[in-house]
Automatic annotation (TrEMBL):
Name of the protein in its database record: non-specific serine/threonine protein kinase
Family listed: Belongs to the protein kinase superfamily. BUD32 family.
InterPro entries: Bud32, Kinase-like_dom_sf, Prot_kinase_dom, RIO_kinase, Tyr_kinase_AS
Species: Micromonas pusilla (Picoplanktonic green alga)
Xref: PROSITE patterns: PROTEIN_KINASE_DOM (PS50011), PROTEIN_KINASE_TYR (PS00109)
First-tier enzyme category under EC: transferase
Lineage: Eukaryota, Viridiplantae, Chlorophyta, Mamiellophyceae, Mamiellales
GO MF, any single term: protein serine/threonine kinase activity
Pfam families xref list: Pkinase
């Protein structure tokens, strides 16, 4: 009994350690650096392995059974990470993926220095050449995804960044609603969402024309 009791106690201790999960976001001070929060999750800015990093964490759905919620969340998390990497293989600029934390339902990725297309449109500071260059990059990026059977699912101007570099590289982010499809209607929805997001002002309508010109030619 003594020996068996010792083994059982040892196993119980091991199980407790296993159940105690390390909250990496907390250790990195992420909860003190909230960038944004939405219905599906929240975004933090941290230093991860010495690099400026964005952490995107999905919320738990309390209305679902815990086991089902864990399964669905992990599946969605994996799909998002795979879609991001797939887009890169198709030649689309995306943030570098650093780490996927299944326990905390979080993805760690490069913090892209620059502004969102939404910010640039709101500032109304883009020249005609800027619109032509950026629009062409966006159109080519979307065409590459669609030709490769990848639908972004949330192609808004908030999810298109313009990197702060000499080339003003367009970077596509947030593949949380991405899916695999070669159906024309699905591609059309992506483009419709993008059109609605871009043409919020009269001055930005030319930008979408440049997007579509590049999309058709790609």
């Amino acid at each position: 009994m003594g020996k068996k009791g010792f083994v059982d106690k040892h196993n119980a201790s091991g199980a407790e350690k296993q159940q105690k999960q390390v909250d990496i976001i907390e250790k990195l001070g992420g909860y003190d650096n909230l960038v944004s929060q939405g219905a599906e999750g929240r975004v933090f800015a941290v230093k991860f392995c010495g690099r400026d990093t964005i952490v995107k964490q999905r919320f738990k759905k309390t209305y679902r059974h815990p086991t089902l919620d864990t399964k669905l969340t992990r599946s969605r998390l994996g799909m998002e990470a795979r879609s991001m990497m797939r887009a890169r293989k198709l030649g689309v600029a995306t943030p570098t993926l650093y780490y996927v934390d299944q326990q905390q339902s979080a993805i760690y990725m490069e913090k892209v220095p620059g502004k969102s297309l939404k910010e640039l449109i709101r500032e109304d500071s883009m020249s005609e050449k800027d619109m032509e260059d950026i629009g062409a990059q966006v159109g080519k990026a979307v065409a590459k995804m669609h030709d490769g059977g990848l639908i972004h699912g949330d192609l808004t101007t908030s999810n298109i960044l313009v990197r702060d570099d000499d080339d003003r590289t367009v970077v596509i982010i947030d593949f949380g609603l991405a899916s695999n499809s070669i159906i024309a209607e699905d591609k059309g929805v992506d483009l419709y969402v993008l059109e609605r997001a871009i043409t919020v002002t009269h001055s930005s309508q030319a930008l979408f024309e440049h997007v579509m010109t590049a999309y058709r030619r790609a």
